[in-house]
């Protein structure tokens, strides 16, 4: 049995949903159905930034061996306007720490983006930020030669019927789409 660690924020944790509805549990169901020898671990913490993940990574890596590590952090950085270079440095630290402790671990990165370009509305600095924020994930994936989920919230962000009333966190149906987005890339890693 190999271990898949999902390391993220409320999107991974399945904010306000039962654990069985969060996408890591849905991935476990798919692995079981396919008789693939993996156990998933959901290390999603609501509200966490990349800096929080950087502080927490050591204790998570000490809990069990890591065969596959899926990094899905950064949404709260974007919401707080944290400079993309800071987010990138924190995510790189996490990726490096996984490789240092588990050199054979296969690492996967999930990307994020803002739903629209704010530049035409006069929010030029917001448009620039959104572009830089989106780009940091692909840059990290290419630099580290990682399997890359381009946009974790693809098909969910902005769809009221797929989100909780806060309009930010996926509901159970939205989590199913997140699981599909992740599986599209993860399938190649685990087979």
UniProtKB/TrEMBL annotation:
<dbReference type="InterPro" id="IPR036514">
    <property type="entry name" value="SGNH_hydro_sf"/>
</dbReference>
<dbReference type="InterPro" id="IPR051532">
    <property type="entry name" value="Ester_Hydrolysis_Enzymes"/>
</dbReference>
<dbReference type="Pfam" id="PF13472">
    <property type="entry name" value="Lipase_GDSL_2"/>
</dbReference>
<feature type="domain" description="SGNH hydrolase-type esterase">
    <location>
        <begin position="6"/>
        <end position="177"/>
    </location>
</feature>
<protein>
    <submittedName>
        <fullName>Arylesterase</fullName>
    </submittedName>
</protein>
<dbReference type="InterPro" id="IPR008265">
    <property type="entry name" value="Lipase_GDSL_AS"/>
</dbReference>
<dbReference type="InterPro" id="IPR013830">
    <property type="entry name" value="SGNH_hydro"/>
</dbReference>
